[in-house]
Amino acid sequence: MNRRTFLLGAFAGTAAIALGVNLYSPEFSLPDEGEDKDYRLLFGVLLPVMLDGALPDVASHKQAAQNRTLDAIKHSIDVLPDEQQAELFELLDMLENRLGLLLLTSSMTPLLMRSPGELTQMLETWRHSYFSLLQTAYLGLRELVMASYYACPEHWSRLHYAKPELFK
Amino acid sequence: MAIIDPIVTGLNSGWLHTDASQLQENQQFEADVVIVGTGAGGGVAAEILTQAGLSVIMIEAGPLKSSSDFNMEERVAYPNLYQQAAAMKTADKAIGIFQGRAVGGSTTINWTTSIRTPKEALAFWAQHKSVAGLDSEALAPWFEQMEQRLNIHEWNYEPNRNNGALKQGCINLGWEYTVIKRNVAGCWNTGYCGMGCPVNAKQSMLVTTIPSALEKGAQLISRAKVVKIEHHNGQVFALKAQALDVNLRPTSVELLFKAKHYILSAGAIHTPTLMMRSEVPDPYQLLGKRTFLHPTVLSGGVFADTINAHSGAPQSIYSDEFVWKNGADGELGYKLEVPPVHPILIASKTIGYGISHAELMAQFNQLQVTIALVRDGYHPDSQGGQVHLTPTGFTLDYPLTEAFWRSARRAYASMAELQFSAGALKVLPISDGMPYLSSWKEAKESIAQMDLAPLKTVVASAHVMGGCPFGEDEKLSMVNSYGQSHYLDNLSVMDGSIFPTSLGANPQLSIYGITARNATALAQKLTDGKG
Predict the structure, then answer these.
(1) What is the number of H-type helices and E-type strands within chain A?
(2) By the CB < 8 Å criterion, does A149 face chain B?
(3) Which of A80, B104, B155, B309 could form a disulfide with B341 if both were Cys (CB 3.0 to 4.6 A apart)?
């Protein structure tokens, strides 16, 4: 919990400077440690933007691919060491929390209610930020999503990649 | 034709293996020698010491996985076989680090490239780092011994197209290139070395020295993490370990190991971390400092024909054209190699998302990737990183210096020139903000101006070295040139952490050869010549 609090402070402090927010005794009410959370709703909003052009065109196939990716994201998070998990949960919690959103994106509008264009703008702002913590947030989400999507053999057809069949 | 799994066969024949995740009670173990870690150093030491008639226990924090488990999928291999599920990073997250964590260590998942320690590195160590008795001639018999043991030979088959482009570019430009020696026997040329060899062709520690030691009665404890070296008055008297569950998280079971002699082979980062946590004597505050990577930058070349960079021996050609060009301690040199291109690896080590990333991935099989491994630790402005303890683990601070970025810029230019020369239609330096470049002329101008910065520029490394240097001068080293601790009589270090600089070459054969020398000397000492 100490580390969590410390990191939260680091994120929040930097974001506050970045966004010119005057923090006045903020009260963060974060959910519990997150073991039972899989952030499906959050990633469900981000996947169509981050995987635009990679997801299948047919709606039912696209939905299936997103669901597989959401499962893979949960698996990817599960195998991370505790410290990395804690950092990631902290970011994800902030993205599900209005004040956290304000700090990270300068808007309290829940991600679910933002358009793809607005989500892209959020990612681009982080990506090109001068603040390493925002860059890190972008890179962390990006790596998690990309690694999880391309972990699934079902998503390799566009790559024309398949593992060889050995006599096993 | 079923592929026989030698580990399953060996275990069925009665090898002494304890999976600590299955233990319910605290336990104590004793042997002549206890070795922490089963990678290139631990594996070689275990075989040599058991052959000398000593009883040996090998402790490994990772799991025992073998060919039956190696299904050629990154999503299985990374969590099973790599430190931090292959997501390990430096403290600022600017460098991704690939290091093994399973029985066999990084040798289970490396790409088989076997290179003797460069003579320039050995000369620098002798001249500046007080390393004694380790020139190319003195080491030659040890390299020969290990090359024979691990079937290390030149890969005399047609390189795959990924390596072929590197070779062709070098030929066209008149640059040096070398056919790589690989530690394989009966290789199927599939290209999945990084996920554990599915056909046991790679002569990793997992299928060579460790089985040999187990055959002679050595004991292997897997999923056990050594957390403390108990020492007093210049002697180690025990190692304390924590059993780990199947997800490699600590259980309540504690293990105690007692031996006449202890060897640390947990690899750079983990050997120094263990020593620091145990507060072993370190009067000159050397532990964890000068930890080295080969910080590596990437360049993607899109070709008209099919490259299939995932298929075939992953590394069979390298170029040392630029490694030592400016002298050992001059501007940082870089080695040119290629990596195997598999979906997770390339998707995560490229840039952007959405349409641009999808378009890059759609060219997956036309993509030739060249990498430049920068040689750290020689130039005054290239002092590597530092390991720090945290309450539950460690961080590695690894500043990327101006000297590194100058080298990276030159490396991007060399890689683009090489890729265009080999026939690339366009080249993409893997650094955020760079467009596809369509000619060498355009590349030259664009790379000269490109923004390079941590987090913006993709930097990765597979080779972790240093942090517990060897040498004769106690102001510069923690162990002597035989790996023997300066301060604890019955403690040795045999792994890549003893290197006082990076190597400028893939490290496995350096660790094999130097460990063979040092473990042989230790065996003689422990058996008093009776072995």
Answers:
(1) 7, 0
(2) yes
(3) B309
* Helix or strand (DSSP H, E) at B406: helix B402-421
A contacts of B392 (beta carbons < 8 Å)? 82-83
Work out the end-to-end distance of chain B between its first and last CA atoms, rounded to an integer number of angstroms. 41
The span from the CA of A139 to the CA of A127, in Å, is: 8
Domain locations in chain B?
6-155+185-290+465-527, 161-180+291-461
| Partner-chain residue, chosen from B3, B344, B432, that has the shortest CB–CB distance to A147 | B344
Q: If you ran DSSP here, which 8-state letter would residue B460 be given?
A: E
The verdict on A86 touching B (C-beta cutoff 8 Å) is no
Q: Would you tell me which residues 15-54 of chain A have a C-beta closer than 8 angstroms to some C-beta of chain B?
A: 49-54
Tokens for A109, please give them: 């509008």
ipTM of model: 0.94
Quote the distance between the C-alpha of residue A106 and its chain's center. Answer: 17
Interface contact flag, B188 A149, Cβ < 8 Å: no
d(CA B11, CA A152) in angstroms, rounded, equals 32
Measure in Å the smallest separation between the Cα of A150 and chain B Cα atoms.
Answer: 5
- The whole-angstrom distance between residue B450's C-alpha and the CA centroid of its chain comes to 30
B66, B353, B359: best to mutate for the A interface, most A CBs within 10 A: B353
User: What is the reported pTM?
Assistant: 0.94
C-alpha distances in Å from residue B479, one per residue of B118, B280, B416, B469, B497: 21, 12, 42, 7, 10
- Cβ A51–B72 below 8 Å, yes or no? no
| CA-derived radius of gyration, chain A | 17
**Contacts by residues B96-100 (CB-CB < 8 Å, ≥ 24 positions apart):** B96/B348, B96/B349, B96/B459, B96/B460, B96/B461, B97/B293, B97/B396, B97/B460, B97/B461, B97/B462, B97/B464, B98/B460, B98/B461, B98/B462, B99/B267, B99/B269, B99/B462, B99/B464, B100/B39, B100/B62
- Under an 8 A CB cutoff, do A82 and B247 touch? no
- Nearest by CB to residue B343, choosing from A50, A78, A161, is A161
CB contact A129 to B (< 8 Å): no
Nearest to B326 by CA among B115, B176, B120: B120
Q: What is the mean pLDDT of each run of 10 residues along chain B (531 residues)?
A: 91 98 98 98 98 98 97 95 94 96 98 98 98 97 98 96 98 98 96 97 98 98 98 98 95 98 98 98 98 98 97 97 96 98 95 97 97 97 96 94 98 98 98 98 98 97 97 98 98 98 98 98 88 44
Q: Which top CATH class is B6-155+185-290+465-527? A: alpha beta
A with B: how many residue pairs have Cβ under 8 Å apart? 116
Please indicate whether, in this complex, the C-beta atoms of A136 and B393 are within 8 angstroms of each other. no
Residues β-bridged to residue B97: B88, B461
The chain B residue lying nearest A81, using CA atoms, is B84
pLDDT of B249 reads 92
Within an 8 Å CB–CB cutoff, is residue A139 touching chain B? yes
For residue B353, the chain A residues in CB contact (below 8 A) are: 49-52, 123, 142, 145-146
- Single out the residue of B424, B173, B198, B177 nearest to residue B315, CA to CA: B177
